[in-house]
Design a protein that fits this description.
Elongation Factor Tu (Ef-tu), domain 3, 7-stranded antiparallel β-sheet, 2 domains, single chain, FAD/NAD(P)-binding domain, binds dihydroflavine-adenine dinucleotide, 13 helices, alpha+beta
Length: 397
């Protein structure tokens, strides 16, 4: 890779953002013979890749398909996901001899380190002679005479194609910004109202009992309307987190109700049967067979059925079990962009070609990755979108 110090340079394409999407796009376009410049304000590329998946990067999901993504246009992601699939990325990973494993639910992780994914992308950028400019603040982006000009501190660069790959504002302390949305609006593209997603939810005073369970987790099904996720929920000092909550948070909007099924695998008459088996014990003892002690205590307290099970009518036990299977609550909010793994919403897909990611009415302008209004579930789906959309643009540049 070349390093540039000052002056104005001419390229075939300028990519803003050296995250997963930008690096994939650069590697593909570069290896197709395009002269590519990638610009990022961070001091190193792929920072979110490095911290992802607990340092092992959940780099794809073998089930990635359009239904696993939220977007104002649920069909938009089909083309890119179909043309550059999880299998294609696995082949790339294999080509680079990176060992990986499936953890659960189709989620693939590096055996060793997320650093290998960044190195792989940089190696392929190197093969394509891509120029990388890191630690650069972008002071201006203009478009005239069919060329885009990007002005940095010490240099300017110009090209007939510009790719917006600066992601969304989730985790600002890592350098995430809403620059993509500002730039999109500057060029007349619409932006679907962004909001934090895959984010812990907060509980109010009325659910204080749960807030005292910080650190306790349970196998659950979370539900918002007809959408359900089976995974762990974790109580935190502010409310709820864990994979099942993060998943459902992407569907939740302020004021909406969410429900938790704490008994996904229990038969309908489980508590009535428990009473038959141990009539002298209390409800809390029965709950202890299903939940960690602290959670059993809190739930028993909430259900407020005192005394021996023998003295609690079956009807009340069935009602208690129904509540445990559909515990409804209204979060007071979320922990916001500071804790959100992704940003939902973003550059409106109506303005983009689903084949190439190019803006329909602004030739040469592309948008890829998280900046676009396509947001995946937890579990490798978001990186797959970064690879697929980056590949689609990289092939079209
Ligand atoms: P990304 O945000 O990666 O890259 C954007 C780049 O643009 C950054 O390098 C940034 O510095 C740069 N930039 C931003 N503003 C700029 C500006 N104004 N000027 C210049 N440069 C600018 N997904 C998944 O599939 N599996 C996983 O395991 C995880 N794990 C995970 C953990 C954590 C903690 C987070 C926060 C997120 C995840 N994700 C994930 C989500 C995943 O990281 C995310 O969807 C992709 O990184 C998006 O890739 P992009 O390239 O689109 O944006």
């Amino acid at each position: 890779m070349t390093n540039v110090l000052s002056q104005t340079y001419t390229y075939d394409a300028i990519i803003l953002g050296a995250g997963g999407a930008g690096l994939m796009c650069a590697a593909i376009a570069g290896q197709r013979g395009k002269r590519v410049l990638v610009i990022d304000h961070a001091d190193k590329p792929g920072k979110k890749i490095l911290i992802s998946g607990g340092g092992r990067c959940n780099f794809t999901n073998v089930d990635a398909r359009a239904e696993c993504y939220l977007s104002a246009n649920r069909h938009f992601s089909k083309s890119a996901l179909g043309r550059y699939t999880a299998q294609d990325f696995i082949e790339m990973v294999d080509r680079h001899k990176i060992a990986w494993h499936e953890k659960e639910l189709g989620q693939l992780f590096c055996d060793d380190s997320a650093r290998q994914i960044v190195k792989m992308l940089l190696d392929d950028c190197g093969r394509g002679d891509v120029t990388l400019q890191l630690g650069q603040s972008i002071s201006d982006v203009t478009h005239s005479d069919a060329r885009y000009t990007v002005t940095l501190d010490n240099m300017a660069a110009t090209a007939p194609a510009l790719v917006i790959a600066t992601g969304g504002p989730s985790i600002p302390k890592m350098g995430a910004t809403d620059f993509a949305f500002q730039l999109a609006r500057q060029f007349g593209l619409k932006v679907v109202e962004p909001r934090p997603a895959l984010v812990p939810l907060t509980l109010g005073e009325d659910e204080l009992l749960f807030r005292n369970l910080s650190g306790v987790s349970a196998d659950t099904i979370t539900r918002h309307g007809k959408t359900r996720f089976r995974a762990g929920s974790l109580f935190t000092h502010k409310g709820l987190s864990g994979p099942a909550i993060l998943q459902i948070s992407s569907y939740w909007r302020n004021g909406d109700q969410i429900s938790i099924n704490f008994l996904p695998d229990y038969p309908a008459d489980w508590l009535v049967d428990a009473k038959k088996n141990a009539p002298r014990s209390g409800l809390k003892s029965a709950l202890t067979t299903a939940f960690p002690d602290r959670l059993a205590t809190a739930l028993a307290e909430k259900l407020a059925l005192d005394g021996e099970m023998a003295n609690i009518p079956d009807k009340k036990l069935r009602a208690a079990q129904a509540r445990l299977s559909d515990w409804q609550f209204t979060p007071t909010g979320s922990e916001g962009y500071a804790k959100a793994e992704v940003t939902i919403g973003g550059i409106n897909t109506n303005g983009l070609s689903s084949q190439t990611m190019e803006a329909k009415h602004i030739p040469g302008l592309y948008a890829i990755g998280e900046a676009v209004d396509v947001t995946g579930w937890l579990g490798g789906y978001n990186f797959q979108w970064a690879w697929s959309s980056g590949w689609a643009a990289g092939m079209a540049l």
